[in-house]
Design goal:
With 360 residues, the chain is α+β, with helices and mostly antiparallel strands. Helix content is 37%, strand content 17%. The chain has 13 helices and 13 strands. The protein has helices at 12-15, 24-27, 31-36, 41-47, 71-83, 108-115, 167-176, 181-193, 199-208, 216-238, 300-315, 325-330, 332-344; strands at 28-30, 55-58, 61-63, 105-107, 129-134, 145-150, 157-159, 162-164, 245-251, 257-265, 270-274, 319-323, 356-359. The strands form 4 sheets. A 5-stranded mixed sheet has the order 12-11-10-9-13. It has a 3-stranded antiparallel sheet with strand order 1-3-2. Helix 6 crosses helix 7 (167-176), helix 7 runs antiparallel to helix 8 (181-193) and helix 8 runs parallel beside helix 10 (216-238). The longest helix has 23 residues, at 216-238. It starts with 11 loop residues before the first helix and ends with a strand.
Length: 360
């Protein structure tokens, strides 16, 4: 049976029990998809009567068996509901290859469950499925579907056959709907610890969504620093670099403190500093991604103080190697080469000023 074959009330689509419809795309169909298969509105309504073989899952979406919907069926139905075309274009039958999702994509806790987050509930246990759609869509949240709007949609990731928002966007939408700080902390910590995302990318998304005031964000930054430090230790050990002084502060003899660095080789006057700060915000399109929510801006003194410290150290003859968590995760070999090159070049530079090394 092809997708466009007309069906009678006695066709296999009506008579086949649910266990034979192995693919969820055959168990959950929109009204438009049923029409494309030759099923009239009257036939659909008859099948959904009390005692019938089908049920009305969502407006314009039907479940082709009478049993309670599974988590995957609810997910598929939510996307069909949110992805249905505007009223003005619904008379045009969908192409046979069209999944019927339009621009809609799963976000929030449902998306995190698809990404494999242990801290996210199973799909079957979710009372609500968040679906991201363009802000211009006139669509209401209904039953178990929560419609989330965005002025500019991110590029979706394909998981389990459905479009899913990127991890950072899904986290932001999940955090926006959670009231328990412990739940938020578990999600954010797992995102970093399990390698789903870098802290800076998560913080950027939370900032655009005006969610940085949540206490759990501090835990995210702390977790991100701990993971980055562990990678830095591993880089030194695995690539045979000389053992540095770890996490020390620097100052001139009898002078003010110059600030702390994550690793320091005093004989070569080379310092490594991990940049785990929240990134800069304020690109023109960032504030529009969440509709009317404007982006937050970190205080500029944090950035100017960082730049001033680095410039001061370099004027004193210290080579400062700037590493980010992403660089350490994605190109550790390359970063080890950068540090080794800085150490080997020490003999070709003017001697650095003597600095007092203090524990942090």
């Amino acid at each position: 049976m092809t997708q466009n074959t007309p069906l009678s009330p006695l066709s296999p689509l009506f008579l086949r029990p649910p266990q034979h419809l192995q693919d969820v795309t055959h168990r959950v169909l929109s009204a438009a998809q049923l029409r494309a298969r030759g099923v009239s509105a009257a036939q659909t309504s008859a099948q959904c009567l009390p005692g019938g073989s089908w049920q009305h899952l969502l407006p314009g979406v039907y479940l082709l068996h009478p049993e309670p919907p599974s988590g995957q069926e609810r997910l598929h139905g939510a996307l069909l509901y949110a992805g249905r075309p505007p009223v003005s274009s619904r008379r045009t039958p969908p192409e046979p290859s069209d999944a019927g999702f339009g621009e809609a994509m799963v976000t929030g806790l449902a998306a995190l469950a698809l990404y494999g987050f242990a801290a996210a509930p199973d799909l079957a246990a979710l009372h609500r499925i968040d679906v991201l759609v363009p802000r211009t869509r006139r669509l209401r949240s209904t039953r178990f579907v929560e419609v989330v709007r965005a002025a500019a949609l991110p590029a979706p990731v394909r998981l389990a056959g459905v479009p899913v928002a990127p991890v950072e966007r899904a986290l932001a939408d999940a955090v926006a709907g959670l009231g328990d700080p412990a739940d938020v902390r578990r999600l954010l910590t797992e995102a970093v610890r399990a390698g789903h995302s870098e802290p800076a990318a998560v913080v950027r998304e939370l900032s655009v969504a005006k969610l940085l005031g949540r206490p759990a964000v501090e835990a995210l930054l702390a977790e991100g620093r701990a993971v980055a430090e562990a990678r830095l230790y591993a880089m030194v050990r695995e690539h045979g670099l000389p053992e540095p002084l770890w996490n020390v502060g620097l100052r001139l003899p009898g002078g003010p403190e110059l600030g702390g660095v994550d690793a320091y080789w005093p004989d070569q006057a080379v310092a490594v500093e991990l940049d785990t700060r929240a990134p800069r915000f304020g690109a023109p399109d960032e504030g529009r991604r969440y509709g009317n929510r404007a982006p937050a801006h970190p205080e500029e003194p944090q950035w100017s103080a960082y730049a001033a410290k680095r410039d001061h150290l370099e004027r004193l003859g210290v080579t400062v190697v700037h590493l980010t968590p992403r660089k350490l995760r994605e190109a550790m070999d390359q970063q080890a080469t950068v540090v080794r090159t800085a150490l080997m070049a020490a003999d070709d530079r003017e001697p650095a000023a003597y600095l007092v090394v203090l524990p942090r």
